Amino acid sequence: MKVEKNKVVSVSYELRTGGKEGDVKDFAPSETPLQFLFGSELMLEKFEENLAGLSVGENFEFSLTSADGYGERDEEKITPLPLSIFGQPETIEDGLLEPGNVLPFSDENGAQFTGTILSVNKEEKNVMVDFNHPLAGEPLYFTGKIEDIREATADEIAHGHIHGSCGCSGGGGHCHDPHDENHECCGGGGGGHCHDSHDENHGCCCKS
């Protein structure tokens, strides 16, 4: 069996930025691989293209440009938000608004995305948030292995994702498309890391 449309694919992988010797940004070990429905348009298009046709046990290694990953950084996605949306000062959780923290947000339509806290201005009562994907502007370097392939069920194909998750599941964090505004499984549209990069739901190969 090979990786192709409507197969449920399990992969272990390591993601680095800046090439083979770059920093590890995400990983999924063979014990808790990333699992996804191939061809369901939840994953980065070029990520899937590099896996197409592979069989169980085969290794992969490839690079993606920032354009094929999470796009270039957009300074217009850095914006101040009222401190009040996080609650009253005395009720805001300690450490919640520490610079560098990645938090989940949603808009008036219920679309979910993430933002990175940059700074807090208590005098002006606002919080500067960066809504660029954390890996925007970064070339991506993947290595990994096809751990398992199975036929998707009729329900999984109809729903567009594997059962037991909201689209992709496993251990780490980064392969979705940044333009998918509705995919929350691995981090929500427009942002990326709703979940910690080492929790049980991968995001760094999915679209958002």
Parts with pLDDT < 50 across at least 5 consecutive residues: 178-202
What CATH calls the topology of the domain at 76-130 is Thrombin, subunit H
> What structural class is derived from the secondary structure elements?
mainly beta
Helix count from the secondary structure assignment: 2
Order of helix and strand elements from N to C terminus: EEEHEEEEEEHE
Strand content: 25-35%
Oligomer: single chain
Radius of gyration: 18 Å
Kindly describe this structure.
The protein has 208 residues and is mainly beta. It has a domain of 55 residues: Thrombin, subunit H (Beta Barrel). Helices cover 6% and strands 32% of the residues. It is built from two helices and ten strands, in the order βββαββββββαβ. The strands form two sheets. Strands 1, 2, 3, 4, 9 and 10 form a six-stranded antiparallel beta sheet that branches. Strands 5-8-7-6 form a four-stranded antiparallel beta sheet, with no helix packed on it.
